[in-house]
Structure formats: C-alpha cells, structure tokens
Amino acid sequence: MSQPSPCPEPAARATALTKVYGKGETRVTALDAVTVDFARGRFTAVMGPSGSGKSTLMHCLAGLDTVSSGSARIGGTELSSLTERQLTALRRNKVGFVFQAFNLMPTLTALENITLPLRLAGRRPDAAWLDAVVATVGLAGRLGHRPAELSGGQQQRVAVARALISRPEIVFADEPTGNLDSRSGAEILGFLSDCVRELGQSVVMVTHDPAAASYADRVLFLADGHVVDELHEPSSAAVLDRMPAFESGSRGAGRHTR
Predict the structure, then answer these.
(1) Where in the chain are the domains?
(2) What is the pTM of this model?
(3) Would you state the pLDDT for residue 73?
C-alpha cells in the first residue's frame, strides 16, 4: 500500500507567537500565543478591529518586527534564528510586500520599479517570469511610464508586480486598496486573486474592508491578540455577518468555519 503524501509545508507559520510592547503599566500584549498556518497557493485575508493584532501578526511573519516568544517561519526558515543580514536577504528574496502607499521610485519607469529588487540583489530578471507577471497585472503598455504618468490603480499594479518579481515564498499586502477608488481597488484585488490562481502565489492581506476580504480564499479574524474565527470561500455578506462581535471586542461567539 502506498504511503499518503505528506502535507506541503505552509508558506508561513506562527506557533505560539507572542508579541509584547512596553513594560510595567505600559505593557501591551499585541499577540497572545497565536498559532496559525498560511497555506501555499492560497489568498488569506486577515481582519479585526483596531488594536486586534492583525498588522502586528503580518509584521512578525514578514520579518519586519521581532517576536517576544514563540515562532515565526517563512517556509522552513525560523526567522528568530537569522542574523540581521540573513533576515534582510530573506525579505529581499522570499517575501514580497504591497503597502497602502505605493512606495515607487518617482524617477524610475514602471519596468525599472518592478525589477528594482532584483537589481539591488545583483540578479537579472527571468524574461519569461517577467512577461508572465506583467501580463497578469495588465501593464504591458505602461512599462516605460514613470509613476507620475500613471493612475493610482496603475501605480499599485506596479507595486504588485514588484512584489512578485523575485518569485517570493509569500506576498504580504497591508491595506493595498486603501488609497484607491472602488473601481481601482477591485482591479487590484482581482490581480492579487489572479496571482494566486494563475501564478501559484501565496498572499496574506490585512484589510478592514469586507468587500476586499471576499476576494480571498480564507478570512482570518483577530481580536485582542487572538485568532477568534475564520471563514472559507467568504462572501461580503458572510464577512459582515461575523464582524459585529469582533468590533465590539467580544470573543464569545466562538470559532466557526464555513
């Protein structure tokens, strides 16, 4: 009898992850022994009220912040075991970032902004992968334009392409549609979904918007530094239905899945 195939290693994993800021009377526990996996090739949205720990979780998993105790891993790499130089290399090569602010270099063209991470690493872009990324985000006709010549939606598409160009283990997106109108925001969310389905990318997105969360395969809810709920294949209505308990700070609703 053949042995069952082992489960693939998650793109990112938190195990009993705790993050504490301050001491004494100013001590705040932003994350309290959080354990959660983020599967490869999946789009996960992380939601919760202000102060719930959602951005802190993303920052710890992305290597942008240290953990107080527990474990944060990207693929098979334990982040706490890395030197600062190794951590910088991991963020450059294995992690993609998309932020609310586009963070593009104004003097560079769209193509130069996309390939900048590779240039900084002394690497040449793989032509076939570059073509696939550019096609996925729909920028083929705008590569020679500088950011000032692009709309907000187009600038964020450049930022998405830049996050993908190094073929990272995982892409973290922090409120990526926060500076966009609803139409441009929907386009960016569609592109992130396409990156998961067509390019096999793994995406974790922090958002407060139920409509944005509905593009994900899974929604994770945080409150008071704990994972309190999750939805699979969510709709906007289903997300809205779950949110009131968390917005009021209650964890009494328990843990549900759909």
Answers:
(1) 40-50+91-247
(2) 0.85
(3) 94
Distance CA 235, CA 250 (A): 22
Question: What is the Cα–Cα distance from 225 to 61, expressed in whole angstroms?
Answer: 14
Tokens representing residue 150 in the block: 């692009």
The class (CATH top level) of 40-50+91-247 is alpha beta
Question: What Rg, from alpha-carbon coordinates, does the chain have?
Answer: 19
pLDDT of 258 strictly over 50: no
